[in-house]
């Protein structure tokens, strides 16, 4: 349940990703000056749906080494019922420039008896992306990696920020967006596939016209669907519902409020 729950919550942020150039071209700020989105997480166990926990994500204006930026924080907490089997307390923080270029990412996670920290610092050199990654293991060991990529990379939170400013109005069913996510000491290759539209009801009682997006990762050379996202069919692209396929059941997340 360890890796599955954490992946479930982090995938809440992936949704779909765009390249930096596309985000700059959009010239919009879909999340406004300040925004907080909250979710209720559910897990299906032997045909019974239980509340697995909550997640909330806040974006505010900030300053990063003297330059204007956006700071996004994600806080997740397992429910008392889940705590009996596996306690989870995660705090994720990400800074990006005003044009959504990633600057810094940090994830501090308590998962059961394990605690670890992932950090990524981003720089650029010409058309190359440089990611300096550090991982503090639960045993106290520090692993450092520095990689240069010929493509644009970002973390999960920054990917979410970017999608908020993309124009998906011309997408056709089957459209694919490549995703390259830096975190820990490695780069994850994934892709997002547009599946069409559907009206979805959130835990706030409201109904939302949504785009359906399928998030896939490569596993032993084969693409596998990990989660299906339902995001609002407008310029804000807010995730309303997520359906996660697990080996031993299914999990869902529903929006509860937007402030």
Give a written overview of the molecule.
- This protein has about 260 residues and is mainly beta.
- It is about 10% helix and about 60% strand.
- The protein is built from four helices and 14 strands.
- The chain has helices at about 1-15, 20-25, 80-85, 155-165, and strands at about 35-45, 50-65, 65-80, 90-95, 100-110, 115-125, 130-135, 140-150, 175-185, 185-200, 205-220, 220-230, 240-245, 250-259.
- A 14-stranded antiparallel sheet has the order 8-7-6-5-4-3-2-1-14-13-12-11-10-9.
- Strand 7 and strand 8 (about 140-150) form a beta hairpin.
- The model is unreliable at about 1-30 (pLDDT under 50).
What keyword list fits this structure?
259 residues, mainly beta, 14-stranded antiparallel beta sheet, 4 helices, globular, disordered N terminus
Strand content: over 45%
Rounded mean pLDDT score: 79
Low-confidence stretches: 1-28
Note the gap between the termini: 31 Å
- In which order are the strands of the major sheet placed? 8-7-6-5-4-3-2-1-14-13-12-11-10-9
User: In this structure, how is the largest beta sheet organized?
Assistant: 14 strands, antiparallel
Shape: globular
How many distinct beta strands?
14
Order of helices and strands: HHEEEHEEEEEHEEEEEE
Structural class label = mainly beta
Helix count from the secondary structure assignment: 4
Helix content: 10-25%
Radius of gyration: 18 Å
């Amino acid at each position: 349940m360890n890796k599955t729950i954490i992946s479930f919550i982090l995938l809440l942020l992936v949704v779909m990703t765009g390249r930096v150039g596309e985000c700059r071209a959009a010239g919009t700020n879909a999340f406004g000056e300040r925004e907080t989105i909250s979710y209720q997480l559910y897990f299906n166990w032997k045909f019974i749906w239980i509340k697995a926990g909550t997640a909330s994500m806040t974006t505010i204006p900030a300053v990063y080494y003297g330059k204007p930026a956006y700071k996004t924080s994600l806080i997740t907490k397992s429910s008392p019922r889940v705590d009996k089997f596996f306690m989870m307390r995660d705090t994720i923080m990400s800074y990006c420039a005003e044009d959504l270029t990633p600057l810094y990412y940090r994830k501090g996670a308590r998962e059961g008896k394990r605690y670890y920290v992932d950090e990524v610092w981003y720089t650029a050199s010409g058309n190359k992306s440089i990611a300096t990654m550090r991982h503090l293991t639960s045993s106290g060991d520090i692993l450092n990696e520095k990689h240069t990529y010929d493509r644009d990379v970002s973390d999960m939170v920054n990917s979410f920020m970017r999608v908020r400013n993309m124009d998906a109005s011309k997408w056709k069913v089957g459209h694919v967006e490549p995703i390259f996510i830096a975190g820990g000491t490695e780069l994850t290759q994934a892709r997002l596939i547009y599946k069409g539209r559907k009206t979805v009801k959130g835990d706030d009682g409201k109904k939302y016209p949504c785009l359906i997006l399928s998030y896939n990762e490569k596993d032993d050379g084969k693409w596998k669907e990990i989660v299906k996202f339902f995001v609002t069919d407008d310029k804000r692209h807010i995730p309303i519902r997520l359906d996660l396929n697990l080996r031993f059941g299914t999990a869902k997340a529903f929006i509860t409020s937007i402030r």
